[in-house]
């Protein structure tokens, strides 16, 4: 079983992640993790924090001589702001976030921000200071998830599985659909959008919101290619890969909805227009050994690569809507928790938008979910064992005819 936990507050000393269940033998490096952490830090519309941090995950355990050991992989990411910066009241974060009691009182946050975790959080945890809530609910935590996702990316690469993301909407600016997506161009776009015209309009929408002291949301799309047919299962609500992906991507800060493929738009179409027709076998591609490169290919992928809670072998396409960030320089009306009087919501340094970054975090959650699904299906204590199981399975999944090199006939037909 693959599982992970993260810990850490936004302005505390650092973030921690533990990933357990990855097999031995996977090539993992801090440099590769750093690549994803750097992508997470980029994106137009971010606030000042990203100029302070150079996120780097130090591997504490589970890796030796560049390969996983099968033991828990632990990662430590320093928050540079903790040791170098000051909080909104001008006091150093080492004081504001001190784990020891402090004599010199820290100004508590009493003016709750609508849309943030502040209000339900202080009620539920009996907090006097909303900082007790916001420090953990901050999207800073996603740094740890991206580091874990990068480790899972290395594992999935062994099976030819790749995960990318792009932005399709920011602040109501819709990107044109670009086919095929040039992932290098997405990475070069300041908003991680494949459409250069929309990219520019998105940066303008962000500038306009910044000028008004406001924020903007948008839509991200995560695409995974190379996943074999049959990950997940149809047999129970919580064994469906669709359930797990909705939970994983829906757990991102600020996400308000998740859909697959053409998703909500399917409400407007008839079944004959929605379902993805299977191509005749003459059009299927074969590998040099005669086996199917990708069995059961479709003419379209409206299902987003999922049927009955299982992968179809088509690209997995997961989209999420990200709400505008709740911390506004032009604050919304609220109530002061100390006085019960009307007030303006608390403001401290924040981003105008976080949508481009959200794509990278969405990738991490899809990577982790797919790594878990691969291990559930193929097991293995060493990655070579997982690979053998994966290859043996793929030889069985085509049509059950003697003409096709599938199932137990695979060897006979290709030999
Ligand atoms: C973030 C760190 C935060 C914010 C942002 C994400 O830094 P700070 O609060 O010190 O400015 O930039 O947080 C949020 C989007 C949020 O909703 O809290 C980061 O490391 O990504």
Brief descriptors of the model:
415 residues; alpha+beta; Chorismate synthase, AroC fold; five-stranded antiparallel β-sheet; four-stranded antiparallel β-sheet; globular; disordered C terminus; binds ligand EPS
Tell me briefly what this model is.
The protein is 32% helix and 17% strand. With 415 residues, the protein is of the alpha+beta class.
Q: Which helices and strands appear, and what pairs or packs with what?
A:
Layout: E1 3-7, E2 14-20, H1 30-41, H2 49-52, E3 57-61, E4 63-64, E5 67-68, E6 73-78, H3 80-84, H4 93-96, H5 118-125, H6 131-137, H7 142-157, E7 162-170, E8 173-174, H8 183-188, H9 196-211, E9 218-225, H10 241-250, E10 255-260, H11 271-274, E11 306-307, E12 310-311, E13 316-322, E14 333-335, E15 342-344, H12 355-378, H13 383-394, H14 410-414
Antiparallel strand pairs: 1-2, 2-6, 3-6, 4-5, 7-8, 7-9, 9-13, 10-13, 11-12, 14-15
The protein binds ligand EPS.
CATH architecture, by name, is 4-Layer Sandwich
How many separate domains make up the residues? Answer: 1
Reading off the top of the CATH hierarchy, the class is best stated as Alpha Beta
**Strand order in the largest sheet:** 8-7-9-13-10
Q: C-alpha Rg, in Å?
A: 23 Å
In this structure, how is the largest beta sheet organized?
5 strands, antiparallel
H/I helix tally: 14
Mean pLDDT: 95
How big a fraction of the residues is strand? 15-25%
Quantity of strands, as a count: 15
**Which H/E pattern describes the elements?**
EEHHEEEEHHHHHEEHHEHEHEEEEEHHH
> What's the shape?
globular
What ranges have pLDDT less than 50 throughout 5 or more consecutive residues?
Answer: 406-415
Distance between the ends: 36 Å
